[in-house]
Design a protein that fits this description.
This protein is mainly α. The protein is 97% helix and 0% strand.
Length: 103
């Protein structure tokens, strides 16, 4: 009978050890899962930030090209107007003068 009680106590102790090991493994698994979630989240954030930077650079490049194109067009129009003014300003002055005087 004494042997049976010792065997039960021994089995109970092993069961507690197994239970403690199971709890420890569960806690380790939870920590690993949380670490993996954090790593994946940080990885996604870094990937999103890289994409945003690529898009920002692309949009900035596009805007700079558009500004350069519009500036060139503006300069061409200004130059044409300046040339036209230089060629015809005397004629326009005379026409305005004649109209004012009613000629």
């Amino acid at each position: 009978m004494h042997d049976i009680i010792e065997k039960i106590v021994e089995i109970d102790a092993k069961a507690k050890d197994i239970e403690a090991e199971g709890i420890k493994l569960k806690e380790q698994a939870q920590v690993e899962v949380e670490n993996e979630k954090k790593r994946v989240s940080e990885e996604r954030l870094a990937r999103a930030e890289r994409r945003i930077e690529m898009i920002r650079a692309s949009e900035e490049s596009f805007a700079n090209e558009k500004i350069a194109r519009l500036t060139a067009e503006h300069d061409m129009v200004r130059d044409r107007l300046q040339k036209s003014f230089e060629e015809k300003h005397a004629q326009w002055e005379n026409e305005i003068f004649d109209r004012v005087l009613g000629r």
